[in-house]
Write a structure and sequence with these properties.
This protein is α/β, with parallel strands linked by helices. It contains eleven helices and eight strands. The strands form two sheets. It has a six-stranded mixed β-sheet with strand order 3-5-4-6-8-7, with helices on both faces. Strands 1-2 form a two-stranded antiparallel ribbon. It is elongated, with a radius of gyration of 32 Å. The protein starts with a strand and ends with a helix.
């Protein structure tokens, strides 16, 4: 802080000196004079650093490398005779980059003998933390939805149970959708998973399971329309996370649940 200053032999207090400086700034005097003149044309030219060159996009995956990884995944999946062996084989498979950034392997949950198998796309952040599919708010809504038609994931009776799994078992960074290569190397494990669990009906919740099972996307167009996926009757439905964001869509989800209930009753006859 300036207590006092001298200007051309006149002693100024701090407030007066600051007021004088403010006045000089208003007049445009923003460069102080030195004791000796400075030739500013003789100053070295300031070097402006060039902007960093844009990084080239990563090269596309080598087709031969992808084919080799898919073949290895297929061999590992074919060699698994139980769900436990399949989970061990898939968890040990290093041919998918998602594994490097994920926290936990997310295989399945619920009663594996259930008549209904529900497929989601890939683990979200909460599922990645817990290593289980369909947890958090979306999982709670899923339990309420299927509980309304008499199905629970922890039921011992296979007739009253459901089983949940993901098309991909590792969480993509930032919650993005899996890319085609990631889905391709996961499909052999998913097909074997379904074959070993042998559900009567599959529920495809979201676009990624529809791509995997129906080779089609557009869940809002597909929902409620029965088809065949992995050799079994399949019903596309909107994901609980979508219903949390769009409560008005719960009415359509309820219609889909009633359709599922009717299909199960017809298969029991």
């Amino acid at each position: 802080m300036i207590d006092q200053a001298t200007y051309r032999g006149i002693t100024l207090d701090g407030d007066s000196a600051l007021a004088l400086l403010d006045w000089q700034l208003e007049m445009g005097c923003d460069v102080p004079m030195l004791d000796a003149p400075v030739d500013r044309f003789d100053l070295p030219t300031r070097v402006v650093s060039a902007a960093p060159a844009p990084q080239a996009p990563p090269p596309p995956a080598d087709d031969d490398d992808l084919a080799a990884r898919v073949a290895l995944a297929q061999a590992l999946a074919d060699g698994a005779g139980t769900l436990a062996a399949l989970a061990e084989a898939q968890q040990g498979f290093d041919g998918i980059e998602l594994k490097k950034g994920a926290r936990n392997f997310c295989f399945a949950d619920g009663n594996a003998r259930a008549r209904v198998m529900i497929l989601s796309g890939a683990p979200d952040d909460e599922e990645d933390r817990q290593g289980r599919p369909f947890v958090g708010r979306a999982g709670q809504m899923l339990d309420r939805m299927f509980g309304a038609i008499g199905l629970t994931r922890d039921a011992v009776d296979a007739e009253r149970a459901f089983y949940v799994a993901n098309a991909l078992t590792w969480c993509p960074p930032g919650g993005r959708d899996p890319d085609p290569d990631e889905l391709a190397v996961s499909l052999p494990f998913l097909r074997r998973h379904i074959a070993l669990a042998a559900p009567e009906v599959i529920v495809l919740m979201g676009n990624v399971p529809c791509l995997a099972g129906l080779e089609r996307s557009g869940i809002l167009r597909l929902r409620g329309q029965w088809g065949q996926a992995f050799g079994r009757p399949a019903l596309p439905m909107t994901h609980p996370s979508y219903l949390l964001r769009n409560p008005a869509a719960k009415r359509e989800a309820w219609a889909d649940l009633l359709s599922l209930q009717a299909r199960l009753e017809s298969l029991s006859v």
